[in-house]
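Take a look at the protein record below and tell me what you see:
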Amino acid sequence: MHDVARLAGVSAQTVSRLIKGFEGIRPGTRERVEAAIAELDYRPNQAARLLRTRKSKRIGALAHEMFEFGPARLLRGAANEARRSGYSVNIVGVDGDDELAIEEAFRSFEEEQVAGIIAVTLTDSMRRVVERRPLDVPIIVDPAETLGGGQTISQTGAAMAADHLLQLGHRRIGYLGGPDGWLPSRERRSQFLADVRAGGGQIVAEWSGDWTPASGDRAGGVFDPSANITAVFVANDAMAIGFIHRLFARGFDVPGDVSVIGFDDIAEAAYMNPPLTTVRPDFEAEGRIAIGALLAEIEHHPRGDFAHPGGELIVRSSTASVR
């Protein structure tokens, strides 16, 4: 700051006032200071600022499977929104079922004196750690909770999938879900099953996976044609890819023998054979909304009205009317 002041021919106090947003600075002085800041590529020292004000501009983010499609998109939306508000996000990857690792992540955030924490693990283990751990900073355990009631992205997407299959005439339907310990997995299952039954359909068979193509492949291996299932909703695209792969290996036609719909709309979904019908949730919007709610708590101002991020049904060739 003193270097900027020396180059601009002003006092360090004037530079400090401009950086803090003080408006009562003469235009000529402002121009000289801004030119000096640009020439020296000056940036305020956030570490020194923290020592002086005790107000951190860092947000901690806990993420399980942080490189998977949904968590990665949500974190990208969260990081972009935080950056627009002058904050940075420190992402720590943890095993969402390892409570000791989660505890250690919280301790690291305490040492760094983060202003708030967002958890993108969405597991029961995470909730148990948060419930028993006293925290003196704002925390959002589930980004979906920031929407203030109503359906989550998982629920609206599952409802889209159910409606699509019912409109195509399918009534004997299967469901391949994710791990039961994940909140989004439970939400997709309960919403889909409820909507199918409300629409006059029947869930004939259920299989459980772990979000990976391999678990989808295993489910495809035990698919029973004698059950007369005409359609299957798979809780994410990765498992749907494995499921369809095994069906083709066993001689089944998709969608001729059975329609398949996924969830996520990953990049590979459009290039499968057949291209995968899927639900495209707006995970990035969910991340932006979560950060907005967290910043409202950090900065002690009212939360705004958040519009539900929703999603979109992407219809491709893996679903067709029931024969």
